[in-house]
Amino acid sequence: MLKHTTITRDRIRQFVEFQLREQLVLDHAEAPAELLIAACAGPAEADAAKGWKPVKAGDTWGPTYQEGWYRVRAEVPVELRGQSLVLTYGKPEIAWERGEMVEGTLFSGGVAVGGLDYAHNWFRLPGGATSVDYLVQTFAHNAETTVHRPEKPRTPQPEVFRGFLFAAVDEELLALYLDCAFAQDFLVAVGEDDPAYATVLRALNDVCNLFGAGRPKSLAPSRKVLRDALDSLGNELKHTITPVGHAHLDTAWLWPLAVTHLKMTHTTALQLDLMDRYPEHVFAHSQASQYEW
């Protein structure tokens, strides 16, 4: 058992945040966009509509719950080509549950292919992409939404455009980051009284030491340390356990029903994208009536 577990956890937290997550993006560039403030039957109608205007970071639009579309049609900068690319919004970073995010569904060729929101701030681009052509269906958020108190007067143009970005990602570092993030979540889930806690905490601390020796040679050994530690926790399966992703989407609570339709499209597109990339991913949606939409 490591002494001073609080200090060790803090060391691990700083390592994962500063030496891994903040170093994931190798380079980035702006992805020019246009804005259409209109409700359209679908992406084809939106693309053909009149009223598209260039939009830049800091521009605002509304009113609250107004449907809108972004069009990201651009060439990938030459200096980024050949790398592993993602489309991000607002900041060139890989992060989860980050504020000031768009909530939008990405369409390509008329098909919903994924989404961006506060918990999914990056969308992986096809390998070898030299250009992109996406429509992003979204809406203006309610800056004054509230659960318990009367709603305050609404901001006329509450939606602030933050900008789309091309970002080149270090895939090897991303794999190690995800392993470490999972191990950190594991520690929170089991608690210090579980014998597995000490095993995984020590492994994470060992990764900090290994990585300090310099990369890239430390990446594969670091992942092996974590894999071996997790594998050692016991592999006698008494039950078949399936982790199930879940979404509970309120049909009409804090927003109009039309926004719920947008949110259902968004949620479904995200989950189908995850299932394509991770065949083992299992997902359940608790609002059965929304499947009919």
- From the coordinates shown, what is the CATH architecture of the largest domain? Sandwich
Q: State the helix count.
A: 7
How helix-rich are the residues, as a percent range? 25-40%
What separation lies between the terminal Cα atoms? 54 Å
CATH domain class name of the largest domain: Mainly Beta
Strand content: 15-25%
Domains, number? 2
Element-by-element helix/strand order: HEEHEEEEEEEEEEHHHEHEH
Explain this structure.
It contains seven helices and 14 strands. The chain has 293 residues and is α+β, with helices and mostly antiparallel strands. Strand 13 (245-247), helix 6 and strand 14 (283-285) form a beta-alpha-beta unit. The longest helix has 21 residues, at 257-277. The N and C termini lie far apart (54 Å). The radius of gyration is 22 Å and the shape is globular. Strands 3-2-5-10-7-8 form a six-stranded antiparallel beta sheet. A four-stranded antiparallel beta sheet has the order 1-12-6-9, with no helix packed on it. Strands 4-11 form a two-stranded antiparallel sheet.
Describe, in short, the structure shown.
This protein is an alpha+beta fold and 293 residues long. The chain has seven helices and 14 strands. The longest helix is centred in the C-terminal third of the chain and has 21 residues.
Topology of this structure?
Elements: H1 5-20, E1 25-31, E2 33-36, H2 43-48, E3 53-55, E4 60-61, E5 67-75, E6 85-89, E7 104-108, E8 111-116, E9 122-124, E10 131-139, E11 159-160, E12 164-169, H3 171-190, H4 195-212, H5 219-231, E13 245-247, H6 257-277, E14 283-285, H7 288-291
Parallel strand pairs: 13-14
Antiparallel strand pairs: 1-12, 2-3, 2-5, 4-11, 5-10, 6-9, 6-12, 7-8, 7-10
Helix pairs in contact: 1-4, 3-4, 3-5, 4-5
